[in-house]
Amino acid sequence: MSGVKTKYSINTWKLTESRTSGNRIKFQHSLNVTGDINTGACESSYPKTASWNRSSMDCCRWDGVACDGFTGHVIGFGLECGRLEGTIHPNSSLFQLGHLQTLDLSSMIFLVPIFRRVGQLVSLAHLNLSYSSLQGRIPLEISRLSKLISLDLSDDRNLLSDQFGFQDALSRVTKVRGYSLSQVNISSSMPMNVSSSSSLRYLDLGDTNLRGDLPESIFLLPNLETLRLSGNNLTVSFPKFNWSSSYSLRELDLSDSNITGGLPSSFGSLKALKLVRLSECNLVGPIPESIRNLSQITQLDLSNNHFRKQNS
């Protein structure tokens, strides 16, 4: 039944990390394995921790744990879609895993925030806490993750960002290739460091209450492949000349934005585009003939705009 929680077990794992014991982790917490989880991103789910105590004393063999084959250090920890709800305590030695590179706790239900200790994971490159019912503000501690490459907090709808604090935090994380923050309440203008990051490949800030002018520099990022900014209060102006992302951009979604100046002929230079969503963008003027050059396109949505026919 929807909304009915089924508790299968309550487990507490107490494991030690030491060179003499095979680099096992001491991970102390209490989580409920439940049948009623946030399944937003899960095609399938199962209790990953159910076999931890039975399968092996070597945590590197456990489901969801990955270790370096040479050093034995824990470098990956993923309990995504694991039917878990509860608390990871601030003193959990999860936050002492100094070699951890990937942490995926998506589609769990956290009863208290875990953010403030995440900043201790100084080797972290990939952090996914999406669909996890997180609440409160995104803390500045995230700025300590200088090696971060991807950040996914999508669909954590009760998360808020302090406008200047959030932008300051992002300004210190310079290697990120992908941000997925859709549904997070950012409520500010586009962070300038994001729109000028040459390493950026993926950006999803849909439905985040962004406002103001979208910096044109975002269309000049040479490696950008996906740009999703739908459902915000943004004013957009496309470059009049060829875009630097003309050979990389594959997906563009600016639905429900205010696009000024119409579609320029330079739009046809985006030959890698496969998906375009520009519905309800107050577009006016003619649709440029150059749009025929988009030979890879599989989805094109220009509905609910104010186009007029080309003059013959």
UniProtKB/TrEMBL annotation:
Superkingdom, taxonomy of origin: Eukaryota
Record's signal peptide: none
This protein's name: Leucine-rich repeat-containing N-terminal plant-type domain-containing protein
Bilayer topology: Single-pass type I membrane protein
Main location: membrane
Cellular location(s): Membrane
Species of origin: Datura stramonium (Jimsonweed)
Keyword Transmembrane among UniProt keywords: yes
InterPro entries, per the entry: Leu-rich_rpt, LRR_dom_sf, LRR_N_plant-typ, RLP23-like
Keywords, alphabetical: Glycoprotein, Leucine-rich repeat, Membrane, Repeat, Signal, Transmembrane, Transmembrane helix
Pfam families membership: LRR_1, LRR_8, LRRNT_2
Domain Leucine-rich repeat-containing N-terminal plant-type: from-to ranges: 48-68
